Amino acid sequence: MTISTEVATTRHLLHAADTDIAAFFDFFDDNCTFRMGNNPVIHGRDNIATWVAGYLGNVASMEHHIIEEWHAETVAALRVDVTYTMRSGERITLPAVTRTTVENNKITEYLIFIDASPIIAAS
User: For the SnoaL-like domain, which residue ranges apply (predicted)?
Assistant: First the structure.
């Protein structure tokens, strides 16, 4: 089975989130649109990086386990379990779906469907 460019790019994006957060942002187009859960939409790679830094302030590491993948045209959706290890040592695993739009090998839209309230409460 051949993996689409969109799914492969999204897999690499999640791997970077788990291993090298600076490399994670290299996947984004300069004008990328980002939304996590019920938070407001954020426009632009630099604004996304600032928001993510605040969100991950008390997170020591993350690990995404891909359960299911889907794509059509320029869109990929991955259902995952993401385990956050907090700086306190507490581990929290949450279900999520990431939806990316990939154009010219860059993420132009990144939506994360998750209830992140346990991470915020643990911070």
Answer: 17-110
5-122 CATH, one of 3.20.20.70, 3.10.450.50, 3.40.630.30, 3.40.710.10? 3.10.450.50
Distance of CA 95 to the CA centre of its chain: 12
Q: What pLDDT was estimated at residue 74?
A: 96
Q: Is the pTM above the cut of 0.90?
A: yes
Tokens 């970077």 sit at which residue? 16
Boundaries of every domain in the chain: 5-122
Give the end-to-end CA distance of the chain in Å, rounded to a whole number: 41
Tokens representing 87 are 């700086």
- For residues 37 and 116, the answer to whether their CB atoms sit within 8 Å is yes
* Separation of alpha carbons 107 and 9, rounded Å: 8
> Which backbone phi and psi does 11 adopt, to 5 degrees?
-60, -45
Closest CA to 61 of 38, 36, 35, 90: 90
